[in-house]
């Protein structure tokens, strides 16, 4: 498997064109800024539960390596670094990596940003691997998930999020989201969305155990919130299956 097997070049090029506005909360990545608080809440809940961290601790990832796959310009990588992790951020678009590096430097954060796919890690392993809203954009979801599993250290944690393939997600993300300009046209291909069962099956085939599935819903009063409803968008948490430890 070479380093670009799971990268879809047209998707990488598309997201590369958005790089300059990634950190603008009112720009083309505004939706990602709205999603980030609920992502961080889910991430913190899972970290604290999995590793018995004090919920009040400011740096619960101290001493751990974290990998952000499809990191964009670093909206999640930077909070991971502030939580104490030694962070590596991977992205298929060189433009995103350049913006991410410059922004992290301006924040005084040491983050190892790299241009490439998860297959390029060459045996490196990580305690925490996150990949948010990425698996629906890759060329080979099974290969992508297998590469993530191969990069997970013993006792490690994988957290993914992705839209579900339902009529609701098509309406919300494409008909309304893209149609009304809330996200750039061409961001989503509904046919490539994975259901929770499909993504869980890919993770299990890669030797991981899925132990949590939590939804995201859009509350008109409070924005995006965690939910038991998986029909719009959802998170999965996985670890090495017992037989693979």
SSE blueprint:
Blueprint: H1 9-16, H2 30-51, E1 65-69, H3 77-82, E2 86-91, H4 94-107, E3 112-115, E4 126-132, H5 141-150, E5 152-163, H6 167-178, H7 196-205, E6 208-219, E7 223-227, E8 233-240
Parallel strand pairs: 1-2, 1-4, 2-3, 4-5
Antiparallel strand pairs: 5-8, 6-7, 6-8
Can you describe what's shown?
The protein has 245 residues and is α/β, with parallel strands linked by helices. The chain has a single domain, classed as Vaccinia Virus protein VP39 (Rossmann fold), CATH 3.40.50. It contains 7 helices and 8 strands. Strand 4, helix 5 and strand 5 form a beta-alpha-beta unit. The mean pLDDT is 90.
Beginning-to-end CA distance, first to last residue: 24 Å
CATH C-level class? Alpha Beta
Give the strand line-up of the largest sheet: 3-2-1-4-5-8-6-7
Might you state the CATH topology name? Rossmann fold
Instruction: Using the alpha-carbon principal axes, give the shape.
Output: globular
Order of helices and strands: HHEHEHEEHEHHEEE
Secondary structure tally, helices: 7
CATH superfamily: Vaccinia Virus protein VP39
Mean pLDDT: 90
Briefly say what this structure is.
By secondary structure, the chain is of the alpha/beta class. Helix content is 33%, strand content 24%. The chain has a single domain, classed as Vaccinia Virus protein VP39 (Rossmann fold), CATH 3.40.50.150.
